[in-house]
Amino acid sequence: MQAQILIATLSFLAGVAEGLNVYKGPLFSLYLRKFNKRVEGFLLPVLSLPLFLWTAVFVEFDIPSVTVLGVVLVIMYVVKFLVWKYNHYTGSFSPNFRTAVKWMVINYSINMEFVLPIFLAVLNITSYVIFMLTNFSLKVVFSVSNEDLLRRLAMLNMEVVSILVGLTLGLFLVASQFI
After folding, report:
1. What is the pLDDT of residue 23?
2. pLDDT attached to residue 167
3. How many CA atoms lie within 13 A of 21 on its CB side?
4. By the number of CB atoms within 10 A of the CB, which of 5, 16, 111, 128 ranks highest?
5. DSSP letter at 96?
6. What average pLDDT values come out for the chain (179 residues) when binned by 10 residues?
7. What is the pLDDT of residue 68?
8. DSSP assignment letter at 56
9. Which of 131, 101, 100, 107 is nearest to 118 (CA)?
10. Among positive and negative, which fits the CA dihedral 33, 36, 38, 39?
11. Long-range CB contact pairs, 44-50, < 8 A, 24+
Protein backbone atom coordinates (compact mmCIF):
# COMPACT_ATOMS: atom_id res chain seq x y z
CA MET A 1 0.00 0.00 0.00
CA GLN A 2 2.79 2.42 0.86
CA ALA A 3 4.47 1.69 -2.46
CA GLN A 4 1.28 2.60 -4.34
CA ILE A 5 1.03 5.88 -2.43
CA LEU A 6 4.65 6.72 -3.24
CA ILE A 7 4.13 5.85 -6.93
CA ALA A 8 1.02 8.06 -7.01
CA THR A 9 2.95 10.89 -5.31
CA LEU A 10 5.83 10.59 -7.78
CA SER A 11 3.29 10.52 -10.63
CA PHE A 12 1.80 13.76 -9.32
CA LEU A 13 5.25 15.36 -9.09
CA ALA A 14 6.10 14.16 -12.61
CA GLY A 15 2.84 15.66 -13.87
CA VAL A 16 3.62 18.95 -12.15
CA ALA A 17 7.16 19.03 -13.57
CA GLU A 18 5.93 18.23 -17.08
CA GLY A 19 3.04 20.69 -16.81
CA LEU A 20 5.27 23.51 -15.58
CA ASN A 21 7.77 22.98 -18.39
CA VAL A 22 6.86 25.93 -20.60
CA TYR A 23 9.00 24.61 -23.44
CA LYS A 24 6.50 21.78 -23.98
CA GLY A 25 3.57 23.82 -25.21
CA PRO A 26 2.84 27.07 -23.36
CA LEU A 27 5.61 29.03 -25.08
CA PHE A 28 4.26 27.97 -28.47
CA SER A 29 0.85 29.27 -27.42
CA LEU A 30 2.35 32.56 -26.27
CA TYR A 31 4.25 32.91 -29.53
CA LEU A 32 1.09 32.40 -31.58
CA ARG A 33 -0.81 34.91 -29.42
CA LYS A 34 1.97 37.47 -29.90
CA PHE A 35 1.37 37.25 -33.65
CA ASN A 36 -2.39 37.82 -33.22
CA LYS A 37 -3.30 34.16 -33.61
CA ARG A 38 -5.20 33.99 -30.33
CA VAL A 39 -7.57 31.17 -31.23
CA GLU A 40 -4.73 28.93 -32.42
CA GLY A 41 -2.74 29.79 -29.29
CA PHE A 42 -5.60 28.68 -27.07
CA LEU A 43 -6.32 25.55 -29.16
CA LEU A 44 -2.75 24.28 -29.09
CA PRO A 45 -2.82 22.61 -25.63
CA VAL A 46 -6.20 21.04 -26.33
CA LEU A 47 -5.02 19.60 -29.64
CA SER A 48 -1.90 18.18 -27.97
CA LEU A 49 -4.10 15.98 -25.78
CA PRO A 50 -4.25 13.11 -28.32
CA LEU A 51 -0.45 12.88 -28.19
CA PHE A 52 -0.82 11.51 -24.67
CA LEU A 53 -4.27 9.96 -24.61
CA TRP A 54 -3.33 7.13 -26.96
CA THR A 55 -1.23 5.76 -24.11
CA ALA A 56 -4.44 4.82 -22.27
CA VAL A 57 -4.67 1.65 -24.37
CA PHE A 58 -1.85 0.23 -22.24
CA VAL A 59 -4.04 0.15 -19.12
CA GLU A 60 -5.17 -3.36 -20.06
CA PHE A 61 -1.63 -4.73 -20.45
CA ASP A 62 -0.16 -7.00 -17.81
CA ILE A 63 3.46 -6.50 -16.84
CA PRO A 64 5.80 -9.41 -16.27
CA SER A 65 8.15 -7.45 -14.01
CA VAL A 66 8.03 -4.06 -12.34
CA THR A 67 11.82 -4.24 -12.08
CA VAL A 68 12.13 -4.22 -15.89
CA LEU A 69 9.97 -1.09 -16.08
CA GLY A 70 12.11 0.56 -13.42
CA VAL A 71 15.38 -0.31 -15.16
CA VAL A 72 14.09 1.00 -18.51
CA LEU A 73 12.96 4.26 -16.83
CA VAL A 74 16.33 4.66 -15.11
CA ILE A 75 18.26 4.10 -18.34
CA MET A 76 15.99 6.44 -20.29
CA TYR A 77 16.22 9.26 -17.74
CA VAL A 78 19.99 8.91 -17.33
CA VAL A 79 20.37 9.32 -21.10
CA LYS A 80 17.92 12.25 -21.08
CA PHE A 81 19.93 13.85 -18.26
CA LEU A 82 23.19 13.50 -20.18
CA VAL A 83 21.81 15.07 -23.39
CA TRP A 84 18.95 17.27 -22.13
CA LYS A 85 20.37 20.48 -23.63
CA TYR A 86 20.56 18.94 -27.09
CA ASN A 87 17.41 16.84 -27.02
CA HIS A 88 15.15 19.31 -28.88
CA TYR A 89 14.15 20.04 -32.44
CA THR A 90 15.75 23.29 -33.56
CA GLY A 91 14.31 23.95 -37.02
CA SER A 92 12.92 27.27 -38.18
CA PHE A 93 9.73 28.47 -36.54
CA SER A 94 7.25 30.60 -38.43
CA PRO A 95 4.33 31.98 -36.43
CA ASN A 96 1.59 29.67 -37.64
CA PHE A 97 -0.44 26.88 -36.13
CA ARG A 98 0.87 24.13 -38.37
CA THR A 99 4.49 24.87 -37.48
CA ALA A 100 3.69 24.93 -33.76
CA VAL A 101 1.98 21.54 -33.98
CA LYS A 102 4.93 20.16 -35.99
CA TRP A 103 7.37 21.34 -33.32
CA MET A 104 5.27 19.81 -30.54
CA VAL A 105 4.99 16.43 -32.28
CA ILE A 106 8.69 16.30 -33.17
CA ASN A 107 9.78 17.27 -29.65
CA TYR A 108 7.28 14.80 -28.18
CA SER A 109 8.86 12.03 -30.25
CA ILE A 110 12.49 13.06 -29.69
CA ASN A 111 12.00 13.39 -25.92
CA MET A 112 10.12 10.08 -25.74
CA GLU A 113 7.44 11.77 -23.66
CA PHE A 114 5.15 8.81 -24.27
CA VAL A 115 7.25 6.35 -22.24
CA LEU A 116 6.33 7.57 -18.76
CA PRO A 117 2.55 7.66 -19.41
CA ILE A 118 2.73 4.17 -20.92
CA PHE A 119 4.58 2.82 -17.89
CA LEU A 120 2.18 4.54 -15.49
CA ALA A 121 -0.79 3.12 -17.42
CA VAL A 122 0.72 -0.35 -17.14
CA LEU A 123 1.52 0.05 -13.42
CA ASN A 124 -1.88 1.27 -12.27
CA ILE A 125 -4.68 3.46 -13.54
CA THR A 126 -4.63 5.80 -10.54
CA SER A 127 -1.06 6.94 -11.13
CA TYR A 128 -1.76 7.33 -14.83
CA VAL A 129 -4.84 9.50 -14.25
CA ILE A 130 -3.03 11.60 -11.63
CA PHE A 131 -0.15 12.23 -14.03
CA MET A 132 -2.40 13.07 -16.98
CA LEU A 133 -4.74 15.41 -15.07
CA THR A 134 -1.90 17.27 -13.40
CA ASN A 135 0.14 17.59 -16.57
CA PHE A 136 -2.66 18.81 -18.84
CA SER A 137 -4.42 21.07 -16.38
CA LEU A 138 -1.15 22.93 -15.81
CA LYS A 139 -0.38 23.09 -19.53
CA VAL A 140 -3.80 24.56 -20.29
CA VAL A 141 -3.55 27.11 -17.47
CA PHE A 142 -0.07 28.22 -18.48
CA SER A 143 -0.97 28.33 -22.17
CA VAL A 144 -3.35 31.19 -21.42
CA SER A 145 -1.15 32.96 -18.86
CA ASN A 146 0.84 36.11 -19.36
CA GLU A 147 4.34 36.46 -20.72
CA ASP A 148 5.97 37.46 -17.41
CA LEU A 149 4.81 34.29 -15.67
CA LEU A 150 6.06 32.11 -18.53
CA ARG A 151 9.45 33.82 -18.45
CA ARG A 152 9.75 33.16 -14.72
CA LEU A 153 8.78 29.52 -15.22
CA ALA A 154 11.34 29.18 -18.02
CA MET A 155 14.03 30.17 -15.53
CA LEU A 156 13.15 27.22 -13.26
CA ASN A 157 14.47 24.70 -15.80
CA MET A 158 11.69 22.18 -15.28
CA GLU A 159 13.27 19.82 -17.81
CA VAL A 160 15.93 18.81 -15.29
CA VAL A 161 13.33 18.57 -12.49
CA SER A 162 11.21 16.31 -14.71
CA ILE A 163 14.23 14.12 -15.44
CA LEU A 164 15.09 13.83 -11.74
CA VAL A 165 11.50 12.91 -10.79
CA GLY A 166 11.39 10.26 -13.54
CA LEU A 167 14.75 8.90 -12.45
CA THR A 168 13.53 8.74 -8.84
CA LEU A 169 10.41 6.87 -9.93
CA GLY A 170 12.50 4.37 -11.90
CA LEU A 171 14.91 3.83 -9.01
CA PHE A 172 11.99 3.33 -6.62
CA LEU A 173 10.43 0.72 -8.92
CA VAL A 174 13.73 -1.19 -9.02
CA ALA A 175 14.31 -0.89 -5.26
CA SER A 176 10.74 -1.85 -4.35
CA GLN A 177 11.30 -5.33 -5.75
CA PHE A 178 14.25 -5.93 -3.44
CA ILE A 179 12.73 -4.59 -0.23
Report:
1. 76
2. 93
3. 21
4. 128
5. S
6. 86 89 79 85 81 83 81 91 78 80 83 88 90 89 84 83 92 84
7. 86
8. G
9. 131
10. negative
11. 44/97, 44/100, 44/101, 44/104, 44/143, 45/136, 45/139, 45/140, 45/143, 46/140, 47/101, 48/104, 48/108, 48/139, 49/136
